[in-house]
Amino acid sequence: MTKFKTPSNKKSTVVISLGDPAGIGTEITLKALGSNRLNENINPLLVGCKNNIYETYSQLIDHGINNIPDPKTLDIIDIPLEKKVIPGIVNKHTGSASFKWLHDATNLILEGKANALVTAPISKIAWHKAGHKFAGQTELLGKLTNKKTSMLFTAISPNNGWRFNTLLATTHIPLEQINKKLTKELIQYKLDALLNFCRKFKDRPLIHIAGLNPHAGEEGTIGIEEQSIIIPILNEWRLNNPDIKLNGPIPPDTCWISAAETWNGDSKGNNAPDGILALYHDQGLIPVKLIAFDEAVNTTVGLPFIRTSPDHGTALDIAGEFKARETSMIAAINNAWILSN
Description:
11 strands; single chain; 341 residues; 17% strand; Isopropylmalate Dehydrogenase; 2 domains
């Protein structure tokens, strides 16, 4: 059984909200906390239903999964479930629970009882059934902190230690609304946010930005947004940041190739970008998940604290089968600790 080191101060404490109880959040959290890949200096503080945690623990043991911590050794903020949960079935009760758990976990951070937050996956459908009309956890965190947030995915290559970063300019909106959202203020703000994050690891990072249209518009022949909107904005940003190399707009179908090559290589390489700005949700997340699915971590940029999350969802199709991989949750917890210290 893994031994957990007791922290000497709050900077070792990572608060973990357990996500939708009908999903795999509690399962992957317990598996992650039992992993020898987890930094031993991390003290986890779980926010969820204690009975559900104990029940999940017993079921994991029954399935022959023994390298997990006994909940008796863990710090838990107990917020009981109102009704029994059926794995894989979300409803207003599971949505209400995951919303409350995240809300209270965030308050613990804001009260100074920890300085990093990890969020297990939630169901947006369940939140809506419970009457919480948020597009996702990122949007709720922005409201709770009154901050302007950005969604960034970061991953450390297990092959060479290279850090791969992609930030999304727009997130959970329909495709038809993207053009209206890509204003000068938004694009420059997102570039600034990406630059500030990348500077945590490199003074003069290389940044790429993907085009909006196929082949980045081919000089206006298959889309005018690059010529009329994006390129003028990028030129102005370059003038304001003369020491930073910004490449783009790059055709989206080739924008992530050097990142993929560096991720899979033995060395970190010289031509891979330190950060990539994707203009919409799937443009960024398809390559991120193809390149680094198990290692990628969703990081909310702009909050007054560090927040990370696995890059996958609730996996309702396998909930209760106890075969979910915990790799991304391990990465989320480790990155929360790294980025907050």
